[in-house]
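Friendly challenge for the regulars: who can give me the structure tokens for this chain first? No prize, just bragging rights.
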Amino acid sequence: MFSKLLIANRGEIACRVIRTARRLGVRTVAVYSDADVDALHVTLADEAIRIGPATASESYLSIERIIAAARSVGADAIHPGYGFLSENANFAEAIEAAGMTFVGPSPAAIRAMGLKDAAKALMEQAGVPVVPGYHGDVQEPSFLADRAAEIGFPVLIKARAGGGGKGMRKVEQPHEFAAALDAARREAEAAFGDGAVLIEKYLTRPRHIEVQVFGDRHGNILHLFERDCSLQRRHQKVIEEAPAPGMTAEVRRAMGDAAVKAARAIGYVGAGTVEFIADVTNGLWPDQFYFMEMNTRLQVEHPVTEAITGIDLVEWQLRAAVGEALPKRQNEIAIDGWAFEARIYAEDPSRGFLPATGRLATLDFPVDGVRIDAGVRQGDVIAPYYDPLIAKLIVHGPSRSSALARLESALKACRIGGTITNLDFLARLAAEPEFRAGRPDTGLIDRAIDQLTIPPVPGDEILVLAAVVATGVLQPMKSDDPWSSLGHWQNWGDAHRSVAVEHAGGRSIVTLAARGRDQFAVRAGENTFPVLVLDRFDDGARVEIAGEQRVFRFLREGETITLFVGGKTFAIRLPDPLAAAHAGEAAADEVAAPMPGIVKLIHVRVGDTVAKGQPLVVMEAMKMELTLAASRDGIIESVLISSGEQVSAGAILVALKPESGE
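First reply, four minutes later:
Bragging rights claimed.
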């Protein structure tokens, strides 16, 4: 086994690799950028070395800096994790040239699957079914538009390099093709340095099913069954499961054989995933699935395969890289139960899944029967430089229904404060009827998006709790503080206080009247609630509202109160009344950056007349492209940024003035 392993990555996957390496007695080396000086993976590793500034291009994507770091500490192997340089053949070659071992496939295998068009041609030769489409070298826009028309709309434009949904656009109608092609190429160029694309037929009811494969240096290749990754938004996976629901023995055998055939065609070594798209209009059939691509690395969702097989895939990666034969044969691997993985992100589903930043003031996960793969701790900051993944939550059960019940329960038990998350979205998705019935497809989230993303609307009782928190009376009283014993008293009558609260697009005034120690009459809406504080603890309280007891947790940060009540999270804002007076006017006149990012494209110039909803600026933030549009009709008064500029959250990008005559 290796003596010292450098992990060329960050976050949860770096932590994941470190834990297995430590169990095997392998010393680990973490690399970090300036943004990750105090990151969890740096703390867990035996050694850590700085490789550059916060921007990924100057740190985690720098082959030269990572190789230099590995040499300086005497590492004999490098694990790439996933993302960043994990599927970069030049990186694998540089590691070998430096006399170290790349924990992954050969550079030739990476290149064979690195460009989707070449990979599909190779798979056709190997007898693996592929999706109908155009996979050639000619990239003229008019030529590609003609090929799309021949294939028949809807079509899917896909970057030939990379993955993760980058450089991918669905096109419904011919007149939408040119704009979608430009956007896909721009995103692909930024993500992979290659703007070439391919065109595929878009299947009307597709399922995304992938097969985990493994190979060693002795010519052995096997599969570890399938995962269903159909629940996606913007081509990014959200909840994955293994095995795939509705899978028959015949289809599993056909899909597994095709995946092994694909891996054998390129002499694959290590962990890889062969991804298929299945047309399930009439159910799953052995002749209705098609090769999409092969990921020549460990997948984000690998824990569900580990859960149903009992195999540590990172351990297998290390053993294969050191030259050992695979520990098991195909007939020795069996499926045990069912597993789900949910990806918990710092993002706002109600605003188009806009990535969020912030300090994780509260980070509390359930423990019993739940696996949490995280790269952050309570108190860490979600920075704008990298993917906003907080954690992966994995559950396992003897059946699909039992595992799904555990998933729902675990998601509702999570408490994360300090940033917006997709927890409520995930819990609703886990309870979605089609998904519960085992009928997922890649269009399910889009069809149910309104129901899945509406923020939880607080009732009057929630507003009452928020107002009580806002007064500060729930803070644990200090026994040596004589003022805490005086209660709420004044010369005439009861003490009153009014609190303004904003919630889910609404605004309310809640009025509290003190009735004695820890007793209040609180008016919210048309109702008045008697409230009695029964107990306090560091981050919560037990109260009685209208005769019913409630135990809840809360977090107060600045003007925001986060309440954790009954498995739901409510973000309540305490607005500044002076700032609110001008908010509407400013929002109409100025287009601001919703988060830190880079300006990629500016569509307008000073003096241009624009209509409400017209795209003005394209930003790239946290691995996502954001299009900012005009909030009303008007004339561009000023453009305050330039292409390629790094901007901070709230920075004014474009200012509007009314059209003449208004």
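The longest strand covers residues 221-233. Confidence is low (pLDDT under 50) at residues 478-493, 578-586. Your move, everyone else.
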